[in-house]
């Protein structure tokens, strides 16, 4: 039987850091208020947290969650969100032209994380604030010394430190939209002195310096180089952010998004390693891909959809509530495959975001919650991903992309663990089904027996624009992949055009 590739457990090249399956919660629109926190909702607990949302976040399987922004953090005063709720100030949030009530802050969010079983990753404000305020927050969150801040923390109900290990040094400081936007030199100096001081307080923390907010930014590349020249010795990670959307109705081009993400990662790795070389250092800076998703951010004319000045300063307005269709979920699944393919350097990633705001989980005030199409590739990949990553070279032909030239129609990655192997695969072609035959003789040699397919999941809809909505919450889902089976030494898979699948072999 002709094969198109192989699945050999011996070709594993890296372990996986579970932080790759992270998420992101920003004070934005109905994410926190009327999303995860809705005191009047029938499923809310005594603290106002919707338990139906908690159940779905657990099912999604997110590891570390980045908080509280995003653009929001660059104007945020973290002290507004601690202490008695009735005393907390109501403030204008300039980033999203909204009013922030501060009814959820660090303590409440940490409580919610305990419910969903995820870890906290905090961002400090380097937009309107400086090193001193970052140190105050770090002392409040992590110190076990007897200080005014730790006494206040205890008075606010938390004697033991929060023990936050991962910290972002601001957010998207390269973006002109960012409050306190700086050039790379100024930001690099600020990030370096803030990182040094934070490490004096807590040497065990891991620090993420801001990379570019997209590979299309005019300063992309030179930003990374300059910022790392200043901060190389002070930080562990540099961030990448990237959002994708279908433009001009060109689904085929949209399906090449994984190639863009892959090149973005390789470029940042190359720049970080070049800076290492100039410093004669063997240290390797890792990537925190701490914002990624499909997001319908731009109009066809290249402008942004949102006109904040037209809406005043509402509390928890409906913002960025993108409805995802089957095609989006296939691209999204491919982005996850891409992150896994770079798991040796992408040691942390955050799906942006989680609830209501460009989210896999939607809610209606007083009403139900439902899974968007993108929920499925994330929850299945997070659940089935094993300990190590395998490269899965697949030769199933190419299509022509305007931006990327010849692009592989089928993209795949696998993970291994003691029990078996999980394969994640996408058919990017809008026209051709893919009949794949993958050689599994390596599995047979490694385990002394032929593998069996014990789980298979296919995400595909004949209508690529079908979506789950309030009125049709289960329109798109996953179903078993018909015919996925091992025949001798060969795994047989038939994937329809525009589809994503996961297979578990033991
Ligand atoms: O995730 C939405 C926004 O996208 C974030 O606030 C910002 O960091 C990015 O531009």
From TrEMBL:
Subunit structure: Homohexamer; trimer of dimers.
Catalysed reaction, written as an equation: Hydrolysis of terminal non-reducing alpha-L-arabinofuranoside residues in alpha-L-arabinosides
Species of origin: Microbacterium marinum
Recorded family membership: Belongs to the glycosyl hydrolase 51 family.
Root EC class: hydrolase
Native organism taxonomy: Bacteria, Bacillati, Actinomycetota, Actinomycetes, Micrococcales
Keywords: Carbohydrate metabolism, Glycosidase, Hydrolase
InterPro entries in alphabetical order: Alpha-L-AF_C (IPR010720), ASD1_cat (IPR055235), GH (IPR017853), Glyco_hydro_b (IPR013780)
UniProt protein name: non-reducing end alpha-L-arabinofuranosidase
Alpha-L-arabinofuranosidase C-terminal domain location: 290-499
Enzyme Commission code: 3.2.1.55
Pfam families: Alpha-L-AF_C, ASD1_dom
Superkingdom of origin organism: Bacteria
One of the GO BP terms on file: polysaccharide catabolic process
GO molecular function, one term: alpha-L-arabinofuranosidase activity
């Amino acid at each position: 039987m002709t094969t198109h590739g192989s699945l050999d457990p011996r070709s594993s090249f890296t372990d996986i850091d579970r932080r790759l399956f992270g998420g992101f919660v920003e004070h934005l629109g109905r994410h926190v208020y009327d999303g995860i926190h809705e005191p009047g909702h029938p499923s809310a607990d005594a603290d106002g947290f919707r338990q139906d949302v908690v159940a779905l976040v657990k099912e999604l399987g997110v590891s570390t969650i980045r908080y509280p922004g995003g653009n929001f953090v660059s104007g945020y005063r973290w002290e507004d969100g601690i202490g008695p709720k009735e005393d907390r100030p109501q403030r204008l949030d300039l980033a999203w032209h909204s009013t922030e009530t501060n009814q959820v802050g660090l303590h409440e969010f940490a409580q919610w994380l305990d419910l969903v079983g995820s870890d906290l990753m905090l961002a400090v404000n380097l937009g309107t604030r400086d090193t001193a305020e970052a140190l105050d927050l770090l002392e409040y969150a992590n110190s076990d010394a007897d200080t005014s801040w730790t006494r206040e923390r205890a008075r606010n109900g938390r004697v033991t430190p929060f023990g936050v290990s991962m910290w972002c040094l601001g957010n998207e400081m390269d973006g002109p939209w960012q409050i306190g936007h700086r050039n790379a030199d100024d930001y690099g100096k600020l990030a370096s002195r803030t990182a040094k001081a934070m490490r004096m307080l807590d040497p065990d923390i891991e620090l993420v310096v801001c990379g570019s907010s997209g590979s299309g930014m005019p300063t992309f590349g030179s930003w990374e180089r300059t910022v790392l020249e200043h901060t190389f010795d002070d930080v562990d990670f540099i961030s990448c952010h990237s959002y994708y959307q279908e433009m001009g109705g060109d689904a085929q081009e949209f399906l090449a998004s994984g190639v863009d993400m892959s090149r973005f990662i390789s470029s940042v790795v190359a720049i970080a390693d070049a800076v290492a070389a100039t410093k004669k250092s063997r240290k390797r800076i890792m990537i925190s891909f701490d914002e990624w998703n499909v997001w319908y951010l731009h109009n066809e004319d290249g402008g942004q959809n949102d006109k904040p000045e037209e809406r005043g300063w509402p509390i928890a307005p409906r913002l960025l509530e993108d409805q995802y269709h089957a095609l989006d979920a296939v691209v999204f699944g491919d982005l996850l495959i891409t992150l896994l393919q770079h798991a040796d350097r992408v040691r942390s990633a955050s799906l942006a975001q989680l609830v209501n705001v460009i989210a896999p989980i939607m809610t209606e005030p007083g009403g139900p919650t439902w899974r968007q199409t993108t929920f499925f590739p994330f929850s299945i990949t997070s659940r089935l991903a094993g300990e190590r990553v395998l490269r899965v070279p697949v030769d199933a032909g190419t299509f022509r992309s305007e931006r990327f030239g010849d692009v592989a129609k089928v993209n795949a990655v696998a993970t291994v663990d003691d029990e078996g192997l999980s394969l994640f695969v996408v058919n990017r072609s809008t026209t051709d089904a893919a009949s794949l035959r993958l050689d599994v003789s390596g599995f047979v040699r490694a385990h002394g027996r032929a593998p069996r397919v014990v789980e298979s999941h296919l995400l595909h809809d004949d209508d690529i624009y079908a979506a789950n909505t309030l009125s049709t919450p289960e329109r798109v889902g996953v179903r078993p992949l018909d015919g996925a089976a091992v025949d001798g030494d060969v795994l047989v898979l038939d994937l329809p055009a525009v589809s994503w699948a996961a297979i578990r072999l033991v």
